[in-house]
Amino acid sequence: MVLNRLFKTTAFRLIVIYLLVIILGSVAVGAYVSWKTNTLMSQQLIDTISAEVKGLAEQYRTGGSAQLARAIGERSRRPGNSLYFYGAHKGAKIAGNMNRIPASLIQSSGGAQFEYVWQQDEVREVRHAVGVPFHVAGNLVLVVGRDIEAQLEFSQATRNMFLIGLGALAIFGLGAGLWVSRNLLNRINTITATSKSIMAGDLSERIPVNGSDDELDRLSANLNSMLARIETLMIGMREVTDNIAHDLKTPINRIRIGAEEALIAPKGKGAQREALQSTIEEADNLIKTFNALLKIARLEAGADNEQKDHVDLAHVINEVAELYEPVIDDANMNLVLSSDISAVILADRQLVSQAIANLVDNAIKYSFDEDDPEAKKNIELGIERFGERVRVIIADQGEGISDKDRPRVFDRFVRLEDSRSKPGSGLGLSMVAAIVKAYGGTIDLQDNKPGLRVVLSFPDYMQTLAA
């Protein structure tokens, strides 16, 4: 069963295909090398025999048949692999170390391979040789040959080694394929088991990463990031559902109570009108809350990210400052504006304006001291460059936010204890965070000593374009 699964893996199939390609390529290369080697060795034999024949022909021209016989006799006594026969075509031998003409050379004029008996002391064996016959005047024949037993043994040894190598390669390749397939199958099984656990509802499960940084490791890391994101969204969805049930229950109850009071109140248009106005105000607040939730969801899903334009942050800051300047004056505060730097970002102008306006509105709301309404406080609104980014700074001199509360103030419907007496739905900072993130920005909450300093950082479009 396990082997059957291993054989069906893509890794094993690919390795088998690669192995077949390598073996076929090796066979082709080996055949070519063998053919080329035999060709070179045969050509060397032919050249050697031709050189000997030229030398013997010179001896014949110099002293005739007797001189040729003496030369062959001398060469036959030398140790080596040269073979000679000089004699009648169908008669006795005149000279040489072969007793007769090999049968394969009798009818051949261009040379052939033959077998002969090699004897030394009491050792006799049949060996192979190549010879070429030459006709000499007087119906005589000269055969010049060379022993090729060593070449044949070399060729046979080469073929044997080649076949052994192919066999070893095949065995090693199949073994490696099974090993790789087994490791891959184990990792796939781990991923499958984790996926089943996640599908069963355990979103905290993660796919193990072995640190090899291979494609499966990178895939596992990406899947883990996706799972972490899904878990965050699911937790966020549950929190939103709980918060909606908790935070929207109060205004809905107020609407219902107001309607009941209008029904049971003494007849009079004034009381009914006030009840209707209160109901409309509560309904408007509910609509604003749901619209804010929808906008945050669309931003986090990337649905509004394509609505981008070149936005000059200095113009946006000046417009927000102009809008809130009367409110700041009424609250007995000073607006410190710093917008003399022109910086362009790629974003939706309306959403960026809304994010900055939300932060300025919060700065005013949480800087106002009801116990000391005459206290003069500053609201800072400015812009600055920081490397290849541009930063928008909104700072106040209110109570600020403690370090432990800063990570969670961007969650939906989160309202700190000190701010529950003030109007709001707890979605302002969530909206700001979603808008800033949608356009490649970051948001950082810092201590203004006293108060809160909010820093929005966006990629500078001109710097990005120049890079």
What does this structure look like?
By secondary structure, this protein is of the alpha+beta class. It folds into three domains: 11-155, 2-Layer Sandwich (Beta-Lactamase); 248-301; 309-466, Histidine kinase-like ATPase, C-terminal domain (Heat Shock Protein 90, 2-Layer Sandwich), CATH 3.30.565.10. 57% of the residues lie in helices and 19% in strands. It contains eleven helices and twelve strands. The chain has helices spanning 2-7, 10-77, 103-106, 149-199, 215-247, 249-264, 269-301, 313-330, 349-367, 428-438, 461-466; strands at residues 82-88, 93-96, 112-120, 123-136, 140-147, 309-312, 333-338, 344-347, 377-386, 389-395, 442-447, 452-459. Helix 2 runs antiparallel to helix 4 (149-199) and helix 8 packs parallel to helix 9. The longest helix is centred in the first third of the chain and has 68 residues, at 10-77. The two termini are 57 Å apart. The mean pLDDT is 78.
Features:
alpha+beta, 467 residues, Beta-Lactamase, 5-stranded antiparallel β-sheet, Heat Shock Protein 90, 5-stranded mixed β-sheet, single chain
Topology readout:
Blueprint: H1 2-7, H2 10-77, E1 82-88, E2 93-96, H3 103-106, E3 112-120, E4 123-136, E5 140-147, H4 149-199, H5 215-247, H6 249-264, H7 269-301, E6 309-312, H8 313-330, E7 333-338, E8 344-347, H9 349-367, E9 377-386, E10 389-395, H10 428-438, E11 442-447, E12 452-459, H11 461-466
Parallel strand pairs: 7-9
Antiparallel strand pairs: 1-2, 1-5, 3-4, 4-5, 6-8, 9-10, 10-12, 11-12
